[in-house]
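User: If you would, consider this record:
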Amino acid sequence: MSDAPKHLESCEHRTDCFVDKTRRDFLRDSFLSVAGALIAVGVSRADAFAMPLAFVEAKTRRGSMRSYAIPAADGAQIDRDNQVILVRWQNEAYAFNLSCPHQNTALRWNDRDRQFQCPKHHSTFQPDGSRIEGRASRSMDRLGLTREATGLVVDVDHVIQQDKDPAGWAAALVKLA
């Protein structure tokens, strides 16, 4: 037995001690507990750890046209250099202006809620850009989008506002299936 006070003695060889031996043990056990809880409430591993947000760059640039690979799975891709959000959602592709239509703040993807959010005034938008709530008075601005054999082509100068051109806004998508 050591000369250390009883509360500072190692728990390593004691059966009545409930303190984790090391920080690593504590972190491992905590992670396993959280993973177990997620499974118990029905959250799959893919849902719990999925990150359907990626940062991309345009493959080619021709004037105002930017080409991108077709996203392989549902989610959002952001091209910061060109201020473009590419979304694949339920077998459709969309291209959006990166900024909120309210006051041009960069939008963020919230994977847990499967929606876009404006961090400044808390407007929220569905994956297809439709407005849910908040200070924004219209849906996200879509960009002109076409499909080519090698992928998607976005016209960064062709901004389509839902309130000014509802038919154009509704048509600014590409069916993938």
Remarks:
- The chain has two domains: 6-49, 53-175.
